[in-house]
Hints:
By secondary structure, the protein is of the alpha+beta class. Helices cover 26% and strands 30% of the residues.
Amino acid sequence: MSSFPALSLAGTDLITERLVLRDWSADEIAAVVRDERLAHWAVDFPADGDRVIAGFVAEQAGPSGAPGAYGHRLIVERASGAVVGSISLLWPPSEGAVELGYGVVPSRRGRGYAPEAARALVTAALAVPEVTAVHADVELCNPASVRVLEKAGLRRWSDDGTVARFRACL
């Protein structure tokens, strides 16, 4: 375990106008890892990125099955109650910075869910005493993801012609 405390917003749902960002349950992690579907998921959840995150969270949880408190959240559409994606902070902070990752399933893209979720998690992360910056890298050939980060309020601070680096700081 890291010497950093668990993310102080653990166990707290982040509620936006249209979304709830909540912790993964042990049952949801297990279902994704076993490639099973749960009734409260959007028809195309989980996507490949969600499977990667579920595996990562399962490793963090260890034998207890408890997902832990590291900023990995499901994105739930408030209107339907359906899980439509996931969003994560890669914990612990490195020199005060955490990396943001996110994904919304194809059936819910184009609705502004990703920037709405990213804004909420970035704001919450920057309220944690150990965190002074949130960053994300995106391939420039993915203009939709570039726009998500811009709409979420992160600023481009560099790019190498292939990958752009975005961040939000205190």
